[in-house]
Amino acid sequence: MRRKIGLWIVFLFTLLLISLSATPYSKTADLALISIRFSILLIVSVLALREWWRTRHDHTAGRDAGGTVLRRLRGWYYDDKR
What we know:
The protein has one domain (2-77). It is 72% helix and 0% strand. The protein has 3 helices and no strands. The protein is flat.
């Protein structure tokens, strides 16, 4: 039930974003959405580069440590209980 509500919220939010293209604020909405997308892309890129740099230069960290950001996000996404 909870998953269905989440899917409906995403669907309605998508309809809202699509409907913004029919308003006089379409260029502003496009710029805002592009800015949000690039911000998220920048954040994920920085996190991935940080984790790559840490694992490449820190030989003391074990592979099964599970304390890195990307591993924690993967565990959260797949509901991994480690």
